[in-house]
Design brief:
The structure holds two protein chains of two kinds. Chain A is mainly beta. Helix content of chain A is about 0%, strand content about 50%. Chain B is about 0% helix and about 55% strand. Chain B starts with a strand and ends with a strand. Classes of the chains: A mainly beta, B mainly beta. Chains A and B meet through strand 6 and strand 10 of A and strand 4, strand 5, strand 9 and strand 10 of B.
C-alpha cells in the first residue's frame, strides 16, 4: 500500500459525459501528478500540482482539467468523453516535487479504470 | 521536447535467463528512476540514480546510469517468475519539472 488513495476504482460512462476522479496523496506529500495509461501503453504524464498550484503540464487535452485543493487532495475532471479516453488513470504523489536538479520518488495510487461506452 | 526511449518493448525469457532493458534520453538528465508495474498493479519505485556512471545493485537487479547521463539500463540476472511485469524508466532534464516516463519494457518469464 503506497498511501495514495484514488476513487472510484472503476468507472463506466457514456460518450459525451463528464466524470471526476479523485486522489488523496500520502500524508505530508505536497505534489500530486496525474497519468493516463491506455491498454498496454506507457504512462502519459498529464499534469502536476504542487501545494495547490499547477507546476507542470504534459499532454493533457483541453477537455481535461485538474485542481489541487487546500487539503492537498486533487481532482481530475474529464469532459465530453470519447471512446479513446478509456484508460487507467493514475495519481501519484511526492514529498516536494519542486524541480531544481532533483527528482523525488513518486508513490502511485491503485488507479481508476475508466471505460467510455 | 524531451523524449525518453525505452527498448525493447517486450521481452520473453525462460526462467533463469538474464534480461536487460535500456533507456535513452534525447537530453541530459538530472537523474533517472526505475519503476516496476506488476500485471494489474500500479508502478512501484525501485531505485534512483544520480551520478554520472553510477551503478547500483538490488539483489539480482543491476542499474546503471551512463557517463553522459543520457542513458540507463536495468539488468536482471537469472530471472524468476516473480520478475514478471513492466519496467519503466523515468527521467527529468536538468532544471525541468516534468518527469518523462519511457514506454516501458514488458517482461514475460516462462517457467
Amino acid at each position: 500500500d503506497s498511501g495514495v488513495t484514488q476513487t472510484p476504482k472503476h468507472l463506466i460512462t457514456a460518450t459525451g459525459q463528464r466524470v471526476t476522479l479523485r486522489c488523496s496523496p500520502r500524508s505530508g506529500d505536497l505534489s500530486v501528478y496525474w497519468y493516463q495509461q491506455s491498454l498496454d501503453q506507457g504512462l502519459q504524464f498529464l499534469i502536476q500540482y504542487y501545494n495547490g498550484e499547477e507546476r507542470a503540464k504534459g499532454n493533457i487535452l483541453e477537455r481535461f482539467s485538474a485542481q489541487q485543493f487546500p487539503d492537498l487532495h486533487s481532482e481530475l475532471n474529464l469532459s465530453s468523453l470519447e471512446l479513446g479516453d478509456s484508460a487507467l488513470y493514475f495519481c501519484a504523489s511526492s514529498r516536494r516535487g519542486t524541480g531544481n536538479s532533483g527528482q523525488e520518488t513518486q508513490y502511485f495510487g491503485p488507479g481508476t479504470r475508466l471505460l467510455v461506452l | 521536447g524531451q523524449q525518453v526511449m525505452q527498448i525493447p518493448q517486450y521481452q520473453h525469457v525462460q526462467e533463469g535467463e538474464d534480461f536487460t532493458t535500456y533507456c535513452n534520453s534525447s537530453t541530459t538528465l538530472s537523474n533517472i528512476q526505475w519503476y516496476k508495474q506488476r500485471p494489474g498493479g500500479h508502478p512501484v519505485f525501485l531505485i534512483q540514480l544520480v551520478k554520472s556512471g553510477e551503478v547500483k545493485k538490488q539483489k539480482r537487479l543491476t542499474f546503471q546510469f551512463g557517463e553522459a547521463k543520457k542513458n540507463s539500463s536495468l539488468h536482471i540476472t537469472a530471472t524468476q517468475t516473480t520478475d514478471v511485469g513492466t519496467y519503466f524508466c523515468a527521467g527529468r532534464n536538468t532544471g525541468g519539472f516534468k518527469t518523462i516516463f519511457g514506454a516501458g519494457t514488458r517482461l514475460f518469464v516462462k517457467a
